[in-house]
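Long-time lurker. I teach an intro course on protein structure, and each term I like to show students one example going from raw sequence to a predicted 3D structure in token notation. This year I'd like something fresh instead of my usual example. Would anyone be willing to generate the tokens for the chain below so I can use it in lecture? Attribution to the forum is fine with me.
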Amino acid sequence: MRSWQRWAVVAVGVTALALVPEAVAHRPLSGSGISAATLLERINASEAAGYSGYAESVGTLSLPQADQLDEVDDVGALFGGRTQLRVWWRGAADWRLDTLTPFGESDVHRDASGTWTWDYERSRATRTTVFTESQLRLPDAVDLLPPEVGRRLLSEAGPEEVTRVGSRAIAGVTAAGLRLVPAEKQSSISRVDVWADPDTGLTLRVDVYASAKAAAVSTTFLDLDQSRPAASATAFALPATARLSERGDRDLLSGIDRYTDASPPATLAGLAGIRRVDAQSVGVYGRGVTSLVLTPLPYSIGDELRTTLATLSGPPKVGTRVLAAFGPVHVLLLTDRGGRYWLLSGTVTEATLQRAADELSANPPQRR
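-- Reply from a regular --
Happy to contribute to a lecture. Here you go:
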């Protein structure tokens, strides 16, 4: 399962500002001769590339505040403003990422068995067990890095879905542009523009559009070194005076997936379910950037989220449904005949969510 399809229970924000001056970061250049199909192949094959650099992501996210959804609030902080990212990347299980948001700084060191998170202000180091590759999770700062976003959004695209869109100077590299236009009419994303080094395939910038006017998600490198960092750059040495804490590998979404007893349907709103080796209670449907997630919610969280969403979207359009939109991500909270809550969310149209709600209302998922 692709990480894009694991992303937020609620929403991804809408980008309102350009990251850097147009004349510097977006200066059009004479186009590279690389074909769209070859560039797509190189981007998808760039996972093992090492690099270090500075990136920024900018977005606006009107994510509702909810007392029991602190982890979703953390997602809102990442996608709700300017996030500065300093990264040293040796591989998928060996990296360091320093993240600075308007709400503070955190440093995360990843190794083969987990992560260390260092909090300077509190002098606290937190050890977290590594997630399994198939486990559902909420998005994290690492998911904002251009190479991660680029590969995940293009991983299921076919050569016939992409076209070249010229070249631009980004972080000292003449980056080749690739545009993905989703084939599915159910997608709420109109296009994805990815700019990558034509030689290495490393993604340097990604712009995700919900409409033709403004990017919904935008992340770019401002400084980049494509040599593999030394091991010392990613290693974490526990300070002698640090306070140590440990945390399990489950967040809100993965906990719901494991401990709720629902059985999601095989298909929903015409979208096929994605087979998961650890299939539990959360259903994931669709392909590529057309993604729909069905999440059963505990009563306490469902009650609070219903009230919060209603303050944004007004009274339910249908008595048991509350619908809201956050950039390209639409969400619908459904209450079934038994009073259980189901959250439908993803990069799909409002009509797709309503169709999914109709199907769930007619045939509520069974308990395992």
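Some talking points for your students: Residues 51 and 227 are 5 Å apart (CA to CA). Confidence is low (pLDDT under 50) at residues 1-28, 68-73.
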